[in-house]
Amino acid sequence: MAKPVSIEVWNPSGKYRVVSTKSMPGTRWINLLIAQDCRVEICTEKKTILSVEDIVALIGDKCDGVIGQLTEDWGETLFAALSRAGGKAFSNMAVGYNNVDVNAANKYGVAVGNTPGVLTETTAELAASLSLAAARRIVEADEFMRAGLYDGWLPYLFVGNLLKGQTVGVIGAGRIGSAYARMMVEGFKMNLIYYDLYQATRLEKFVTAYGAFLQANGEQPVTWKRASSMDEVLREADVISLHPVLDKTTYHLINKERLSTMKKEAILVNCSRGPVVDEVALVEHLKQNPKFRVGLDVFEDEPYMKPGLAELKNAIVVPHIASASKWTREGMATLAALNVLGKIKGYPIWGNPNQVEPFLNENASPPAASPSIVNAKALGLPVSKL
Ligand SMILES: NC(=O)c1ccc[n+]([C@@H]2O[C@H](COP(=O)([O-])OP(=O)(O)OC[C@H]3O[C@@H](n4cnc5c(N)ncnc54)[C@H](O)[C@@H]3O)[C@@H](O)[C@H]2O)c1
Ligand SMILES: O=C(O)[C@H](O)CO
């Protein structure tokens, strides 16, 4: 028998029981659920990562839907428990859903939601911040200053890399990868090389138009290239940012062999998922190549770092905060709640998960749809014509 898990209850008399495994930013998501007759239960346990047993206890005997987190293991056990409790909806409060076994959800007929779009620019901004911080050695310089080591300007003090005119490489040019590419091209006049399974047509058009604008103004135009292999990006780019989904094809995409093909002074940024990089190989590479720098938001065994990483001056490490802006986190909570609510109410699925703005407008009621259900097709759920 699992021990009871502490909760906070909103609208106790609500007809539908919706559980959130964590407290989430803002109150709009709670109000939207209450307005549609939901009793909202929020887990208030102090520990950061809930176990499968904790979540089974939270689901209990009757539960219509759950909002969960990317740190939780949503597999056979949890979907079976949710299904037994009468639940038909689960949403991650995240766009990535590599922590969810979608086949298990399909088996129990549970819709799986995610939260695309609302975190695109926020995540791209953090990737750009890490790129700049690594290029200009901002964290090292900050530590030096605070340690009282600065005794006057010197020609060699914290010399880094100029981004203008260098090449930015993007692996996974989807929503976030494309937004990051635009920031680096437009903001720093970098040339672009990208690799994705699909052509990023809008991104290519943007760089072409921006290059023409620069040329018309007497400046060096920026260029773009769609690489035919990932290795081409690794060989040619000065700054490389990783933005693919994590799946079998991207696990350890960056390994010892591939690191050795990169420029000795390259910068590698990872704001996707930790296991996209073989972190042990990365630590070794950083030790052997002190001018190679990394900016990491995600780690292979979160919350842990592989031994040696924390001691390296050529690594900047932050705790998975790429989507951490107030607007984005409140929006993620809203989208996750509306995914669950939409399924409970029998609404159709929103037609375009890349355009979720109508759900985020605080001054209007959200559309009667679930914003993004990743297994809608597998479950045969109807798609909204709105
Ligand atoms: N660090 C964070 O806080 C944070 C925040 C948001 C998203 N993410 C991660 O970023 C990922 C991407 O998010 P998105 O909204 O841009 O998703 P997206 O689906 O729009 O983009 C992912 C891209 O990866 C490409 N891709 C898939 N397999 C590939 C492969 N083998 N090689 C090259 N490209 C491949 C896809 O074609 C797609 O264009 C999420 O799945 C999530 O894991 C992390
Ligand atoms: O996938 C996501 O949404 C992130 O990792 C959380 O910000």
TrEMBL record:
Keyword terms of this UniProt record: Glycolate pathway, NAD, Oxidoreductase, Peroxisome, Photorespiration
Protein origin, superkingdom: Eukaryota
Pathways per UniProt: Photosynthesis; photorespiration; 3-phospho-D-glycerate from glycine: step 3/4
Catalytic activity: (R)-glycerate + NAD(+) = 3-hydroxypyruvate + NADH + H(+)
Residue span, D-isomer specific 2-hydroxyacid dehydrogenase NAD-binding domain: 130-322
Molecular-function annotations in GO: glyoxylate reductase (NADPH) activity; hydroxypyruvate reductase (NADH) activity; NAD binding
D-isomer specific 2-hydroxyacid dehydrogenase catalytic domain residues: 38-346
Cellular component terms (Gene Ontology): cytosol; peroxisome
The EC number(s) this enzyme carries: 1.1.1.29
Keyword Oxidoreductase: yes
Gene Ontology BP terms: oxidative photosynthetic carbon pathway
Amino-acid biosynthesis found in the keyword field: no
Subcellular location: Peroxisome
PANTHER family, A to Z: 2-HYDROXYACID DEHYDROGENASE-RELATED, GLYOXYLATE REDUCTASE 1
Family designation: Belongs to the D-isomer specific 2-hydroxyacid dehydrogenase family.
Protein name: glycerate dehydrogenase
